[in-house]
Amino acid sequence: MLVWIALTLGAIAVALVAEFVVFAVVLRAVRNRPLATHATERLRGPTQVLVAALVVGSAMASSPLSAPARSRAERAVGIVVICGIAWLLSRAAGVLVTEATRRLRIDVPDNFRARTMQTQLAILQRVVTALIAILAIASILWSFGEVRALGASLLASAGIVGIVAGIAARSTLANVFAGVQIAFSAPIRIDDVVVVDGEWGRVEEITLAHVIVRTWDERRLILPCLYFLEHPFQNWTRPTSEILTPLELKLDPYVDLDRLRHEVDEVAAGHPLWDRRVNVVQVTGSDATTVTVRVLLSARNASEAWDLRCDVREALLLYLRRQQPSALPRIRLTGASSPAN
User: Fold this and answer.
1) CATH number of the domain at 173-235, please?
2) SS3 of 339, please?
3) Among 48, 70, 144, 298, whose CB has the most other CB atoms within 10 angstroms?
């Protein structure tokens, strides 16, 4: 028995050394190919597990174990092989998705299609991983005769069990289906700018169960996928990231609008965040003491629009204070003359 164990361990060691040499040669041969290098590095772990399990399985034929012990050992080796194959397949799927995502650039202005595909790939990877895990668990359970017998006895009542399970997990299943629907109908995508319940942020991650939104102040909103199918929300980057940004000023009715428009033109033209699509100055309201002047500018995306609005507002207030101080709001008191005696 000890001799067999020693020989088996020696065979495993030799196989692992040979596997190490093969992977080292492959890595050297593909060092200039990022995809092949990444795949080789990621698949090394599950390959080592499979090699060791296969060596042990081959050695079982000559093992001095009794028939029941050999059966249990072969079952254990089979479970390890199933886990190794599942690990290998999930790693391979991850490599393909990572490589496809790497080719999709979202750091460019026109990134609508890239963000849509990145979202779909992320959801697809999670679905494939979940299916591989379910099949692996089912295969492991099916290797036990007791489980097969139990499955046969419950086959007649599978319909009732399915109905009960469906009712018990209806919210979970609805959320999973919502995640898949989001991936392919694309109401939101990764890196979309959204406003949810008054909170402004970017979609950071989409899973089969929830969506993570990173707010402007680095908080994280974690919402179920079903929320985005059942509640209204704002998406500022569908179908493009271009956006208009308004700013309003309460000014005195004596403001010189022509000079103000000229100043807005100069400020916008000299600002790197203005995309030169829209530049409008309008009086949108008035009351007894002030008029409301709205400046409408355009920007490439929501973040740049916010910075542009803040910078232009600051520049206009500085201009009014220096060049048109009479245009700043003021309170006028008018006294009525007393009637003559």
Assistant:
1) 2.30.30.60
2) coil
3) 298
Report how far residue 74's alpha carbon sits from residue 139's, in angstroms, rounded to the nearest whole number: 15
Distance of CA 252 to the CA centre of its chain: 48
Q: Give the global pTM.
A: 0.54
Question: Structural domain boundaries of the chain?
Answer: 2-152, 173-235, 243-327
Per the CB < 8 A criterion, the answer to whether 168 and 111 are in contact is: no
Q: What is the CATH number of domain 243-327?
A: 3.30.70.100
Which residue, among 267, 275, 195, 191, has the nearest Cα to 232 in the 3D structure? 195
Express each pLDDT in 185-218 by its tens digit. Answer: 778 888 888 999 888 999 988 887 889 999 988 8
Condensed to tens digits (0 to 9), the pLDDT of residues 61-92 reads 666 667 777 777 778 888 888 888 898 899 88
